């Protein structure tokens, strides 16, 4: 178990890396008690927000992603018990949406396919 500081703020980024001239990426992120709203992302645009882990370590944000007219899926964009460890060093979780799925990184250089379409 990580010794997460409840005051630590984590930053979540969802980045559109779909083909440059394809349709936009629709993103809607929310938790059980906080709706971050919707956004249509053009190529290389980002949807960004910050959160802190609650006392019970149950903080969870999920996002609905829709590549307009092509693909759609839900992802767990921030899950406290998972991400307090893997996003701890730099305090951010990065999600890169590509034509074959959604990739995760915590350092903006090593990307791992976490959610195929």
TrEMBL record:
Compartments where found: Secreted
Keyword ATP-binding applies: no
Pfam family, one: Self-incomp_S1
Any GO BP annotation: rejection of self pollen
Main location per the UniProt record: secreted
CC annotations in GO: extracellular region
InterPro entries in the record: Self-incomp_S1
Domain of life of the source: Eukaryota
Keywords: Secreted, Self-incompatibility, Signal
Entry annotated with the keyword NAD: no
PANTHER family associated with the record: PTHR31232, S-PROTEIN HOMOLOG
Family designation: Belongs to the plant self-incompatibility (S1) protein family.
Name of the molecule in the record: S-protein homolog
UniProt source species: Parasponia andersonii
């Amino acid at each position: 178990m990580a010794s997460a500081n409840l005051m630590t703020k984590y930053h979540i980024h969802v980045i559109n890396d779909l083909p440059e001239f394809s349709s936009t990426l629709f993103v809607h992120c929310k938790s059980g008690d906080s709706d971050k709203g919707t956004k249509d992302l053009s190529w290389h645009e980002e949807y960004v927000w910050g959160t802190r882990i609650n006392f019970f370590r149950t903080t969870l944000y999920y996002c609905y992603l829709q590549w307009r007219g092509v693909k759609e899926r839900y992802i767990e964009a921030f899950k406290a018990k998972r991400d307090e460890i893997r996003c701890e060093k730099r305090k951010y979780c990065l999600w890169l949406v590509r034509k074959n799925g959604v990739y995760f990184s915590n350092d903006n250089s090593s990307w791992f396919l976490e959610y195929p379409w």
